[in-house]
Design a protein that fits this description.
Largest sheet: 9 strands, mixed
Low-confidence stretches: none
Strand content: 15-25%
Helix content: 25-40%
Mean pLDDT: 95
Length: 480
Amino acid sequence: MNILMTASEALPFCKTGGLADVSYSLSKEFVKLNHNVSFVLPFYKGIEKKVHKKINHVSDLIVTMNWRKINASIYHVVYDKIDYFLIKNDYYFYRDNGLYGYYDDGERYAFFCLAIIELMKYLPIKFDVLHLNDWQVSMLSCLIKTKYGSDNYFNKIKCVLTIHNPLFKGYINRDSLFDLYNLPTNLYDEGKVRLDGQVSTLKAGIVYSDKITTVSPTHRNELLTIDGSKGLYYDLLLRKDDFIGIVNGVDEKEFNPRKDKNIYVMYNESNVNSLKSKNKVEFCKENGLNPKIPMFAIVSRLTSQKGLELIYGMAQEVINHNGTFAILGSGEYEAECFFNRFKALNPKNSYVYIGYNDLLAHKLYASCDFFIMPSAFEPCGIGQMIAHRYGALPIVRRTGGLVDTVTCLNNDNSNYLKADGIGFDDFSNIEANESINKAFNLYYSNDKYMNTLRKNAMKKDHRWKKSALMYLDLYNSINK
């Protein structure tokens, strides 16, 4: 099968969050299963420094946006047997302050979508499936079905949209349909792309894609409720028979304590209870912390979605019980200030790193006893699955993909032979802090429970192969 994957970010080129990990890892798994995968990305500033292999310029294509004729330079490189095509236009993508958050993001990704259409015309490959990820590329299914529906090649391509984060809907104004995409405004007037009085590129993808997925079964069910839909309830309800949830996986090669040279001491599920603690000892020695008390860690974007309101209280609860709280992340300015103050007030029981550091992330996963994820909502989540790989027990709020990936310990510990984490339900400080208390009790009261949960966590199957096979079944179902 010939698969064209499209996203606004992907490893190893550019990353702001889990989308980069997921889109790359899924593509890599398709290749392992003997499918041909091409991947189209914007050529952002700095990409050329992140890939050791030579990136080759292959063509210059012209993109038409209303009256404008804009050049798209196409570059190609093979990485992990994936054919990456990078679309270069310095006006849109050579910017200093990250990938997103610019006033003209709607225009930037409209150009990207139109350039992908031109690239598909140019390439000799005939794709069976076009896999779209989030709002930046969602309009492609609308373009293909409305503008190119009579084309013998494009009308055979099946479009699959994956919603990773439903909060971001890709709003542009009505006139931008024609000005940016060369599409008639009646698509808005008829309600096909209209949401909240604007054009939503994400809604366009929901309406025009052949199938829609999100990144866990529970999150799919939440999106089909009024309260949990993030404003997409009616649109997704109309497509519920074409909408499924497929849980993400983790890259077992990158996150593997058996072979991870980034951590202090390598270990596996058979010796986790004797060797994992050596990582905590070394981390604490480097950072002036006490290795004899439980360590709670967070590796995350610092945003309200990740449960910041609860994290503040949980951090203080850890300190109140004489534990160590460690955090690696960046995001909202107020959150960054809070944790810097927190470190100053609790120098002997806290570790704070504002930013992202891949080496440090691996060390934290290997060193911590518990990994905190009290998300307000969580389509899938990757941190809890990485924590499992390193024998750290996730403390999660039972929502979205956290429900599907963490087996939480019962109040009476009766399911300890299967459990691999701690959970709570309500988005409340009371329940969140109770989960911290439960973790302390587990750590100090009974080695049998703690040791068993660690081994269960490391044995948990989060392989991408399972997810990839489900996606392939989906592709095949629409290509019959």
